[in-house]
Specification:
By secondary structure, this protein is mostly helical. Helix content is about 80%, strand content about 0%. The protein has helices spanning about 1-20, 25-35, 45-50, 55-70, 75-80, 80-85, 90-105, 110-120, 125-140, 145-175, 180-215, 220-240, 250-265, 265-295, 300-325, 335-340, 350-355, 355-360, 365-395. α6 runs parallel beside α10 (about 145-175) and α9 runs antiparallel to α10. One of its GO terms (cellular component) is membrane. It is a multi-pass membrane protein.
Length: about 400
Amino acid sequence: MLTSLGYIFLVGLSLGGICRKLRLPRIVGMRFTGVVLGPYVLDLLDPSILSISAQLRQMALIIILLKAGLSLNLRDLKQVGRPAVLLSFVPASCEILAFTLFAPWLLGVNRMEAALMGAVLGAVSPAVVVPKMVQLMEGGYGTGKRIPQMILAGASCDDIFVIVLFTTFLSMVQGGSVHMGDFLNIPISIVLGIALGAVVGLGLSWFFERAWAHRQPVRNSMKVIVVLGVSFLLMAVEEWAKGTVAVSGLLAVMSMACTIKIKSVAAVSKRLSEKFGKLWLGAEVLLFVLVGAAVDISYTLTAGPLAIAMIALALVFRGVGVWLCLLGTGLTAKERLFCIIAYCPKATVQAAIGSVPLAMGLPCGQLILSTAVLAILITTPLGSLGMELTYGKFLSRENP
């Protein structure tokens, strides 16, 4: 395992640095590292690492969500409330609609299988989008119109919506029944996740303040450990409550961080944000290399050019959905185009659920997995490079 971690960090950082020199996003090099080191190419990663890959990726995602929550200003979110809410489901719905309408014609699946494929492909990747939005907020790019905050909030809820639809469509393809309660899980999961995180955040803020009042202040490094430990438990609550009530662990984590920022002294939240930023330097490598390792590129050979055409068509529908969400916001054409680009990358959700239909023995399983892998390979560098090349030109810069 230690050898594998050495490969992950050293090769991942090296290729990330090379990409940076070439003016490409670092994550492209890290993703390529994972593909090459993974079980489908050189097979240099220990099976014990791969067996806990999903948990390690989730830990890395928690770190950047905490960093995001500690950087967010709730007043900014209130001012972009409507488009942020729309961005959480309209673009994904447009993409699923595109698959439902055109995949039967292009890929030879039935309507229900096409809808299932759309649900797999419909989610934006928070692992790619959230770090970039945090970087833009810290640099002051687009913050005057709350563009990074809006995208960050929308992308965080987008996955919940898509995963609920995925489980619903999966049941329908298998011949199961669908209940309205399945769709009610979407708002319930969002509201309960935010509420749970806010309550826990208030409790942690009170604990830190009480320790200060008793002249036994908790060091910032210790606060990081406490917050991280509580975040892991919040993610566990999502699993514990499954089957009883829907709760979004990721939203709970971000809500907790936002509450700590509001209730804590500005200097404290700033220091915590800086420390989580330092943790992210290592977590970023782990996340993107392991996401790359989960990609079986051999499946791209079975997808074919028609799958590429379907992905491109779906992205056009997705772009139209983003544009509709931004009507009446006062954003310029360039700013709207940046939002469309930011909503392109796919990675974590597709890597997590893309193989489920195949594992369940569905006839469309291999085609769905092949298309998901192809979408990851196309949209991640496309979205990452697009954001990297355009944010400085399309977004106005405020004082960070």
